[in-house]
Sequence to fold (243 residues):
Amino acid sequence: MATYIGQKLFQFDVIDSTQNYAKEICNEAANGTVVMADCQTQGRGRLNRSWSSDPGLGIWMSIILKPNLRTADYPKITLVVAVALQEGLASFGVNAKIKWPNDILVEGKKVSGILTEMSGGDTVIVGCGINVNHSLEDLPIELREKASSLKVCLGHELDREDIYSKFFDLFEKYMCQFESEGFEPLRLKWLENTDSVGKDVDVVMATSTLRGRIFGIDHDGVLLVEDENVDLHRVISGDVIYI
Ligand code: BTN
Fold:
């Protein structure tokens, strides 16, 4: 059972973005405070993309963390969230896989995304969006090729509270492990549950695109991509497209 994540929970019917509210309150908020909304009017994802957050269908939440880690370790929290999300969804029968850096896929389609942002020196805001009870027609037309929901994958609805409660338990367990034992056990778990390793990819970065094959992640959670000359590249940030 989670002892600090989700102990304090702010729930809204409608909000612009749980991420924004979490940022506003994070100085006074306790470690593990969660902001959740039934609907977001300006949900956002990585690279300032919009995140569709229709009422009643998904889990849209932001978790305020004050981790007992060096600041240099904070970027790895995204991968720890992915490990907890993947395992949590799998416990409901979902064949979920992690795609670097922040996606959870089922049958190649995205059902969940993670947005990790720093706020001040010692606070991290972890945003998670999970498409839960969407029917195919609830997903924006332009996303139907690439996105899905747990309901579409399983053929039945799920109770959103069951899912986020399970996630809180697992995420707390893995954050404690990260804080006490370091990243290596989580790196191994990540590698067990990703579908990225061995995939041929284009990695679209700020000023260039790298074509190669995913080799794994290193001890910093950085993506390792081998190009056609068998040179290994470290990718800190980029969009991975399976080809
Ligand atoms: C991504 O895949 O690019 C990350 C998506 C993160 C979406 C969540 S929903 C809750 C929180 N509030 C936001 O505005 N974004 C995150």
About this structure: The chain has five helices and twelve strands. The longest helix spans residues 160-181. The pocket of biotin is lined by residues 17-19, 40, 43-46, 49, 51, 53, 60-62, 102, 113-115, 127-129 (CB under 6 Å). The first strand starts at residue 9 and ends at 15.
